[in-house]
Amino acid sequence: MLAYSVTQRTSEIGLRMALGAQPRQVLGLVLRQGMLLALVGAGVGILVALPVARMAGTLLYGVSATDPLTYASITLLLMGVAVLACYVPARRATRIDPLVALRVD
Predict the structure, then answer these.
(1) What span, in angstroms and rounded, lies between the C-alpha atoms of 63 and 41?
(2) Where is pLDDT greater, at 48 or 53?
């Protein structure tokens, strides 16, 4: 989804770079956008998972349905995957040639 968003915003990113934005600023912009979505998704996921886990608690063996270590470790793992998933389109956005991006429109 973020790769599609970067593709849609090619002219905007090209304009930013033509006006003097550094590649690290563009990288930060795209990473912030993607990680904000990931953080909101993680928050909603935890809020939904707590009541569902209590219902499925009888199916678990050796672990509590609301084990905070499990929730924290899975959330950190998913945030790591989200950073990698955001980095690839963000890195591609830093390589946009401003002249080519502005010529498209």
Answers:
(1) 24
(2) 48
Contact 16, 26 (CB under 8 A): yes
Widest CA span of the chain, in angstroms?
61
- CA–CA separation, 28 and 23 (whole Å): 9
Q: At 105, is the secondary structure helix, strand, or coil?
A: coil
Answer yes or no: is pLDDT of 62 > 90: no
- DSSP label at residue 61: S
Q: Both tokens of residue 57?
A: 């608690």
Write out pLDDT tens, residues 10-41.
888 888 888 988 999 999 999 999 999 999 99
Task: Please count the other Cβ atoms lying within 10 Å of the Cβ belonging to residue 89.
Answer: 19
Distances in Å between the Cα of 103 and the Cα atoms of 26, 28, 100 are: 19, 25, 5
Degrees to nearest 5, angle at CA 67 with 69 and 34: 60
In angstroms, what CA-CA distances link 64 with 54, 59, 61? 9, 10, 8
